[in-house]
Amino acid sequence: MSSNNAKKTASSVQKPVQRIVIVGASLAGLSAAESLRSEGFAGTITVIGDEPYAPYDRPPLSKTVLTGWLQAEHTTLPQSVDLQAEWLLGMPAIGLDLGNREVELADGRRVGFDRLLISTGTHARQWPDLAQAALDGVCLLHTRDDAVRLRARLAARPKRVLVIGGGFTGSEVASVCRELGLAVTVTERSATPLIGALGAAAGAFAGQLQRAHGVDLRCNVTVMSLEGDESGRLRCAYLSDGDILDIDVAVVALGAVRNVEWLRDSGLAFDSRGIACDAACRAFDINGMVTDDVFVAGDIVRWPHPLYEGELLAVEHWGNAVEQARTAAHNMVSVPADLQAYKSLPAFWSRQFGVNLKMIGLPSFADEVVLTQGSVSERRLVAAYGYKGRIVAALTVNMARWLPAYEAMIEARAPFPPVLHAPDSSAELRPVPAGFPPHGQITHSPNAIKTGPGPSIPSPEESPTSDKVKDPRVPPGFQPK
Amino acid sequence: MLRIVVDLNRCESYAQCVFAAPTVFWMKDEESLEYDYAPDDSLRVQVERAAAACPVQAISICCLDEQLEQQGGNHSEQQ
Known about the structure:
Chain A is of the alpha/beta class. Chain A is built from ten helices and 30 strands. In chain A, helix 2 (27-38) runs parallel beside helix 8 (318-332).
């Protein structure tokens, strides 16, 4: 056992848990703290967060906050129990010393723990050219501050907004732009928006919606460079299709990067895909051993789900942050016999272009998809996703009430195409290929993906060729020499 | 200070909350619920009715930790 691993002795396992530290003060961290108190934990809870705000809710940032309906400061999350916690906000954690069970903070302080929850989530992927990223008018959208800045930009009525990346964040921003009557171009390097999350078949529907609402949607196109005027204000964008766009706002919506950097040298098993843990939310160390005192929850996690063949899932959903944090909290203060396995189905919602999209299960696991109810023309439909003859996910468009029925089918591993007795279902279901990009092809809307089996030793450096493929400026089909 | 949060995974758009507290909850398009997380305290009774009326019980009402909100930092006081 290497020196940076916590020593596992019988006495350390049975020591009463008095100090719990939570690193990450967002939805997962807050949910865990609430659960710990509901479970009767009476010791100290310290919550460490890099942002200067109490936990707030992110989904409205790309919807009601951007349209101006909701003040950003109103997104603060309610606290259902009196947490009696110590909050260290605006204070990033920069290191983890497992041997001494201490978290190291940016100001040099060290905070000791008996149990640690890591829920540091993600941050938005930057535009790769830093000089271009710094131009006045180039925006990200991940935090409350980002939302306030972007809201101000949109309220100033820009002549055209460029959204780089057609994942959920990009699509929702484009939807808000149209709602506000602003001209908007979306560039998506894949064949359709939302392809990573929903596949090409459903993505084609999402693309139709965008165009029907007046979005200038450009698929199979990347942005090669952004250019400013002499005062550093964004002026135009050069696209891979040869076009030059006259724009004053660009929203970089290229997906999320896991906040794992601070765990470097901690001895935990993490890489850019997240931190690997077992079904009880206990983190793995680099030797593939499960830790007894380090737990993980939320967007940063890769964990084994029984319905998806032991693949480790990474899920960037609101519901996952809440549920996984609750399971982790329960397990942090439980004896081994009382441990619970985390096996919630992924579920999410999105509002864009006049429809309510809801999903249950893991679409990206599927090889086929079929329209089971409703119709594309009505923009009210249910689509079921199948993998090798069983149903693995379902998507509803303005038909959310059907979702629980499909959830039950997915849990029961029901056959695909599903046998329905719904009044609006056609007699003969015609599955089509789901159309997910090949494994390893980068999209910016994975949202919920399988990340390979088992914890692996993190690779310190990625090869130059993989960086080429990841660079969002590289046009599709480009072959690195 | 009154604070609410709705589990939109659970929400099935029955819109009973919109009937009960129309200035706090509203339907966007056909099926998307939008709401104000921080309704005025004078609306408490309405919001409680809305939460009680929700067929899928997706609405949580809580209070805000005002000190934490004000300070955005070191806070460990008894309340």
